[in-house]
Design goal:
Elements: E1 11-22, E2 25-33, E3 43-49, E4 56-57, E5 73-81, E6 84-94, E7 97-98, E8 101-105, E9 110-119, E10 131-135, E11 150-156, E12 162-170, E13 173-181, E14 188-194, E15 201-210, E16 213-221, E17 230-237, E18 242-245, E19 250-251, E20 258-265, E21 271-277, E22 287-288, E23 290-291, E24 295-300, E25 303-308, H1 310-315, E26 318-320, E27 330-335, E28 341-344, E29 347-352, E30 355-359, E31 373-375, E32 384-390, E33 393-398, E34 403-408, E35 416-417, E36 424-428
Parallel strand pairs: 1-22
Antiparallel strand pairs: 1-2, 2-3, 3-4, 5-6, 6-9, 7-8, 9-10, 11-12, 12-13, 13-14, 15-16, 16-17, 17-18, 17-19, 20-21, 21-23, 21-24, 24-25, 26-36, 27-32, 27-36, 28-29, 28-35, 29-30, 30-31, 32-33, 33-34
This protein binds beta-D-fructofuranose.
């Protein structure tokens, strides 16, 4: 079976980290607990790909080795400078380790610092001699939180300087902190931004330009929808490092399984986003966590699109008559009329009340804590569906990425039912 989705090589994985196109290869690091299929003291796993479709796992990149990160190397990002690869991440030290499982701490009592590690070649990481603390734990509550300040995303701006955005919290509101640096080594606090009524802590912020528009992705915790990744328009001003955020936030993905998206720029200059699929159980009992396919983020007519990356489309381009969802990775394309639906291996995609919905109730192993059925907001301009079906993930792109519904699934069957006016096309790998 051809794998287009990056899966955990062992144990547990969560957020994508340090996603970058560096010296002719895509590097994707990820939050990793290698010893068991559950979250614990974090490491950074590492995979590389030539084309974003086939991934090769490499050695562990980061692991705890210093007082500042002795209990975990939390999420962060990568940036290239003078041919070297710089990683920025959050080092965590537990104040109250859980006596029953010292890989975790009690009551969120841990201290956070921001660290860097510079690699000469993107493959060797000196965990003993190369780590530097660039931002010590924040002691001033007017700036940020000693514990909940994390996930540095670093980028180079038009003024030639480097900026870092961190997720944080203050006064029970989520907050973003901005730092800046001339050389990636010395960082100064520059500014912050927050918003009313949108969760108490903002994780994994990522700011970038998509064409003429500024886009912000982040993962707020504790909203009325729980912890869900969102996107919004935002404008960052280099002069005072301030950010104006749009008033409307919308979900990155309407399946509500994706979290902690991170972006980079691909070899052709496209903005590409990848995110962690939160899975309710390990498919084989041993390895849990995987990523969605890379998506190209584009802003058009006041809307943020997430489109399948052309390399993935290209990989799944051999037209086949009928797929077998129990055994095959494939893509399907169609357009739905009102009240039409199709069923792939027990997973139902349909159109009702002017929206596209996807229902995994029959293929989620009885897990009721995750959403069975998800739908897009009302659609006004077409009902085109392009779905990517793999044995544990289905990704439904509506109107070429106007909205996306992604679900973790288990036990897809061989059955395919689709009697649609527009017909349906299936594509598999060569
Ligand atoms: C998001 C997150 C990040 C943190 C990491 C720890 O899923 O909680 O904020 O850095 O995971 O694994």
């Amino acid at each position: 079976m051809s794998e287009i989705h990056l899966r955990s090589p062992r144990g547990w994985i969560n957020d994508p980290n340090g996603f970058i196109y560096y010296q002719g290869k895509y590097h994707l690091f990820y939050q990793h607990f290698p010893y068991a299929p559950r979250w614990g003291r974090m490491h950074w796993g590492h995979a590389v790909s030539e084309d974003l479709t086939d991934w090769k796992h490499l050695e562990m990149a980061l692991f705890p080795s210093k007082p500042a990160d002795c209990d975990g190397c939390f999420s962060g990002s990568a940036v290239e400078k003078d041919g070297r690869l710089w990683l920025f991440y959050t080092g965590v030290r537990y104040e109250s380790p859980d006596p029953e499982n010292t890989n975790c701490c009690l009551n969120g009592e841990f201290v956070s610092s921001q660290l860097s590690l510079c690699s000469e070649d993107g493959e060797t990481f000196d965990n003993f001699g190369g780590k530097r603390t660039v931002i010590p734990p924040i002691e001033d509550p007017a700036i940020g939180d000693l514990r909940n300040t994390r996930d540095p995303k670093v980028w180079k701006e038009s003024d030639g300087r480097y900026y870092m955005v961190l997720g944080s919290t203050a006064g029970e509101k989520g907050r973003l902190l901005f730092y800046r640096s001339d050389d990636l080594e010395r960082w100064e606090y520059a500014n912050s931004v927050s918003a009313e009524n949108y969760g108490w802590m903002w994780e994994c912020p990522d700011y970038f330009r998509a064409g003429d528009a500024g886009v912000l992705l982040f993962s707020p915790m504790g909203t009325e929808y729980g912890n869900q990744a969102v996107c919004t328009f935002a404008e960052f001003s280099v002069g005072d490092a301030s950010m104006r955020m749009g008033k409307r936030f919308r979900f990155l993905d309407y399946g509500m399984d994706l979290y902690a998206p991170q972006s980079t720029v691909d070899a052709e200059g496209r903005r590409v986003v990848i995110a962690w699929l939160r899975m309710p159980e390990a498919p084989d009992g041993r390895r849990i966590g995987m990523f969605c396919i890379p998506r190209v983020c584009e802003a058009e007519n006041g809307h943020i699109y997430f489109r399948p990356h052309p390399n993935i489309r290209g990989k799944l381009s051999r037209e086949i008559a009928a797929p077998n969802p129990a055994e095959q990775v494939f893509r399907l394309c169609t357009s739905l009329e009102e009240n039409e639906e199709l069923c792939v291996g027990g997973y139902v995609i349909g159109r009702k009340n002017g929206r596209i919905f996807a229902d995994r109730s029959a293929v989620v192993n009885g897990h009721t804590e995750v959403l069975g059925r998800s739908e897009t907001p009302p659609l006004h301009d077409g009902f085109a569906v392009e779905a990517y079906v793999d044995r544990n993930i289905v990704e439904v792109f509506v109107n070429d990425g106007e909205y996306v519904i992604t679900h973790a699934v288990y036990g897809l069957t061989e059955e395919v039912r689709a009697e649609l006016r527009a017909g349906i096309h299936y594509f598999a790998a060569q």
